[in-house]
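Journal club prep, shared notes

We agreed each person brings one worked example of a sequence with its structure written out as tokens. Mine is Pentacotripeptide-repeat region of PRORP domain-containing protein. I'm keeping it raw so we can talk through how to read the token line rather than staring at a rendered picture. Sequence first:
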Amino acid sequence: MSLVIVTSLSMFGTCCNGAFSECQVYVSSCNRSSRGLIWESLGDFQTATLSMVNWKKHRKKRKDFCRLALQNPEQVMVVKGKTEIRVSEDEVLGVLKSMTDPIRALSYFYSISEFPTVLHTTETCNFMLEFLRVHDKVEDMAAVFEFMQKKIIRRDLDTYLTIFKALSIRGGLRQMTTVLNKMRKAGFVLNAYSYNGLIHLLIQSGFCGEALEVYRRMVSEGLKPSLKTYSALMVALGKKRDSEMVMVLLKEMEDLGLRPNVYTFTICIRVLGRAGKIDEAYEIFRRMDDEGCGPDLVTYTVLIDALCNAGQLENAKELFVKMKANGHKPDQVIYITLLDKFNDFGDLDTFKEFWSQMEADGYMPDVVTFTILVDVLCKARDFDEAFATFDVMRKQGILPNLHTYNTLICGLLRAGRIEDALKLLDTMESVGVQPTAYTYITFIDYF
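Then the structure, token by token:
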């Protein structure tokens, strides 16, 4: 194993005596007048041999010495020994920041990457890019960028913005689709990993259209986007309700030999469902079984929600039964979805069926589900049970919240029971639940 240590020659003589055993030490011939500068290459080192008794007893001292030495970038030596001591990102940055000569800094940057104890990060690479940019060394910047690609070091927003500055490009990531040619001419050639990362970066920054254009360019260059990239594009397009483009991407990924997974199919079902294209969503659902990619609980939840929103309650109930028959235990989310949707349609009987199943599956009602129950009881004009629900909640240690009170007040006002609504208003204030503007507007609308 290898270790980079930064120290002075005088410090070396004092500290290393008794600090290392059976190690070969390579010491550079450094100019003492050039403080803060690191050697230009590892090939200039001379060899020496040190010895010590009781290596293990001094292990802690050795680690402390190495850590201290790395924080003092006056000189450098490289120790080849049996023990690995990890060099931190901050220590590498500390050395780089102490330098003024970009050539020596770049030499140090590349040289230490050869040691297993030194791992460059996005931060160290970005610092090197900015250092080179300040000194107008675009060609070397392109080499560092290629180094990041080969070492699979994440390129972030700062990476690209630094490159943009070097190429005098304004407008940030929004200009990405127009500057890729300029980047290539300057030596910044993106590989598949970089394209995938850039597409994700554009999506996270809200530039869905630009991300799609970069995707097109990536494919035109013969590079294959990852399944994760396709999924991210589909999610972004789904938020824009662009179901047609989502299906285009599904076909294109399959044409490139990528097989959709459960997550990808579920995204398609969600997008189609929100667009009201229930038949197409069902077709994707059937494909999953046919292609040996069975739907999971999330897939069922998404399709059930779409069916409920489309008013296809019977189909939603059938799908729920199928889900349980296939061994998927409903979670509380899907129960809340079903309770809420059947409440919207005032189907009290089915609501109670799902309520019983929810409790049988071990999910205790909470303030959210109790509030939905109060709402459906109000719609059924069963106010006695609605008030009784408040008592049940308190016995179970669940306090009605503002939304619960507002729900019952609205139900009472719709039924013309103004006195009961006013009494409930007084009650909620007495238990510390303060009415909001919405509460008072509800009364104003009634009058």
